[in-house]
Amino acid sequence: MSFLLFVLTLFFLNSCQIENVQSSSQTFFDMEVFLEKxxxxxxxxxxxxxxxxxxxxxxxxxxxxFNLNTDLEIFRxxxxxxxxxxxxxxxxxxxxxxxxxxELKYIAIDDKLKTRELTVNYSAGKINFISIxxxxxxSVSSIQQNLKYFPKKGYSVESLQEITLGSKQNLxxxxxxx
Length: 178
Prior knowledge:
The chain is of the alpha+beta class. It has one domain. It contains four helices and nine strands. The protein has helices at residues 2-15, 31-41, 68-71, 73-76, and strands at residues 48-54, 57-63, 89-95, 101-108, 115-123, 126-137, 141-150, 154-163, 168-177. It has a nine-stranded antiparallel beta sheet with strand order 2-1-9-8-7-6-5-4-3, with no helix packed on it. Strand 5 and strand 6 form a beta hairpin. The radius of gyration is 24 Å and the shape is globular. It starts with a helix and ends with a strand. The model is unreliable at 1-26 (pLDDT under 50).
């Protein structure tokens, strides 16, 4: 009888083992990592074509001297891959009929976050483009930004700034890598 009790006790203790639960290190798309890789692959870039439009005034130039690292700071500042924000964004994934990822979309749940939406579009398993929508408001101004990044091709920034008791200012920057 004691042997049977011993076996039943072992069986019970064995079935009640605590599983080794691994913490989910869910992360979002990491803009910083993406840009570092992109900059390294563009290290031999010789020139860029930059078109800047402020309201209706257009300036277009081909630049042989530029600092792409600094130029892309606006994209780095839109990185949402922070542990503190894991519950601040909803994530949606789109797959094609072959179950290949076509798009990841992150939408801010918290109204206080500047980056409202970040979309990563894929084609044939590679990033086709990244689209970001930023909004920020203060008591004296509001700024809306739409950013797009096209790997190995260039990027665009559209910004609308409204100042209380002032005028609107539209800014558009289009950069093409040569």
